Amino acid sequence: MPWSCASSESLSSLKQGACGPEVEHLQRQLAAAGFEPGGEAGVFCPKLKAAVMAFQRTRGLEVDGIVGPRTWAALDSRRGSGLRPILKRGVCEPAVVVLQKVLATHGFDPGFKDGLFGPKTERAVLAFQRAKGLEADGVVGPKTWNALGMTAPRSFPVASGAVQSILPAVQAEGGRSYSV
Question: Which of 5, 122, 143, 172 has its CA 20 to 30 A from that of 15?
Fold first, then answer.
């Protein structure tokens, strides 16, 4: 069965020149994520486009300055503004692409790096969790992110679509240490 990625938001795509309440929402979301949207409230100006592009760049998204479904998903504050979200089978968002790339750097094949947390990605997560002595539940939460080397909240986003170099880290859990 093919996977499809649909945004959970019903917000429309936005680009420079747009104005209104959705643009104000975008400005608030960018500010909450640590990006300066600039300009007049509710107006998608060149400064806002630059902020969108900076956000997209740091999240490993296509850098086009257009806020479509993937950018909205990454900005969704209910999912932690794209910072170390809890991921599990069935989730479709840019954070899954990062997970898939990081799993691959650790030698666990998640299949296509498409943002879809499907069965192959779940198998890779389960194998990684078992290899690191974690509870193998297939859910990527704080312990799994830490074991993957994504320990600092701001280390999660990746620049230019490339996986950051992940330095070996040691995580202590229950008196035991695991080398990543």
Answer: 5
